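Re: weekly structure request thread

Next one in the queue (258 aa):
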Amino acid sequence: MMEKSLGECGVAILGGTAGVGFEAAAQFAETGARVVVLGRNDDRGAAAVTKLLARVPGASIAFVRVDAADAEDAVRAATKARVLLGQIDVLMCTTGPSHPPELLHEIPIDEVMPRIDEITRPPLHMMTAVLPAMRAAGGGAMVIVASDAAKTATPGETLVGAAMGCIVMFARAAALEEKRCGIRINLLTPSLIADTPGAALIDSSPFAAKLFQKAAAMAHLGLADASDLAAMALYLASPAARRITGQAISINGGISVA
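Done, posted below.
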């Protein structure tokens, strides 16, 4: 079983150009890990690398473009990231929806499955693309960011909840399959994450903003932010969490105890 220190690891982060993924990239780089940021946009990728190097001068950080909704492109990007890193010891996926919460009866039926696909395909493809080489290397860790919508039914999150439930069960079943190969797979399931693109998406909808203002009032420990999730991701990827796999950990300031 692989028990490398984080500073010895090659880390690939899908969705690492902003929000939780960007903060995780910075925190991993601060440990000395080699980091590849994966994203769809070359300009955002270049900007993210520049910002990360300003924060962690001398770090080993690169960007690889990928549309992980496309299976072949996910495999291509995983191969390129592995060449750059030497080995992908840690995979983190931080992608999410591009639509704010919306009541089901307001969503056209022909958009139901495309919206679910948009959320589920990238992490499922990236996990599957990285898995063969991680198995061959004798171990590794994956940390997948999903949502508490996978655990708690919430008005406006019919599609998000369905998609996140898919991601959670996919990752947990994979964790059982791969434990004998020394691969650990865990999930983070936040509710609200302050000051992220996801929070801005929610604020763009009066319905969603009102809904989540009520939820935020329940976060008596304070709303989670990107640094909270990144810190937990580093822990789960580290040897300190070597006995932990298949868990979906809520980081939500007390909004729920799902």
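Helices lie at 19-30, 42-55, 71-85, 112-137, 158-178, 197-203, 206-216, 226-237. The CA atoms of residues 138 and 181 lie 6 Å apart.
Next request, please.
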